[in-house]
Specification:
Residues 5-179 form the CYTH domain. It holds the Pfam family CYTH. The chain is 23% helix and 47% strand. The protein has four helices and nine strands; from the N terminus they run E-H-E-E-E-E-H-E-E-E-H-E-H. The chain has helices spanning 17-26, 92-101, 148-161, 173-181, and strands at 5-14, 35-44, 58-64, 67-78, 81-89, 104-119, 122-129, 133-143, 166-169.
């Protein structure tokens, strides 16, 4: 993503996956084959769960289809409107060591299967997240000074127009998995 570009998304827990898939087909969305993503999330030293994520850099090391992707996200308006930078890396373990050396610490491992599709200028992701459940994300990339919160309102309207039961969440997958694995 170019400088000044942010990824803005909304996320929902899915109650009825078949109904969602049908609604997407009705809108002309063709979903990709399933891919497995194995993500290690990282936070800056000094940050901990319960603290605000706004303005804090977070890193992710993802392996999918034999490729390793390193991503840094910095939430702007909220946790789902982030400046994002991503690149492919050759060696996951060496990148892990580099991320730790840069002052990040590993937080949560997120493993999921994902199918993606496109609806207009939006990306649709259906994720089955180990320990957390089934979710749909609707994302759009914005440039310049466009408000992430305003774009999220537009994306939410699209989600609600699908006519299926969805429960919106503002938590990121690392927070959802962490909560699911926390001792009772």
């Amino acid at each position: 993503m170019a400088q000044g570009t942010q990824e803005v998304e909304v996320k929902y827990r899915v109650a009825d996956l078949a109904a969602l898939e049908d609604a997407l087909v009705q809108r002309g969305v063709s979903l990709s084959a399933t891919i497995r993503q194995d993500d290690q999330a990282y936070a800056e030293d000094g940050w901990s769960y319960g603290n605000s994520k706004i303005g804090v850099a977070f890193a992710r090391l993802r392996t999918q289809q034999g490729r390793h992707l390193f991503t840094v996200k910095k939430p702007l308006d909220n946790e789902m409107a982030c400046l994002e930078h991503e690149t492919e890396v050759a060696d996951r373990e060496q990148m892990h060591q580099a991320v730790v050396a840069m002052g990040f610490y590993p937080t949560v491992r997120i493993v999921k299967t994902r199918r993606t599709g496109v609806l207009g200028d939006m990306s649709i992701c259906i994720d089955e997240v180990e320990h957390a459940g089934v979710f749909v994300e609707i994302e759009r990339t914005v440039h310049g000074g466009e408000s992430g919160a305003a774009v999220q309102q537009e994306l939410d309207a699209v989600a609600r127009s699908l006519g299926v039961e969805l429960e919106r969440t503002t938590d990121t997958y690392d927070s959802l998995v962490r909560a699911a694995l926390a001792p009772a």
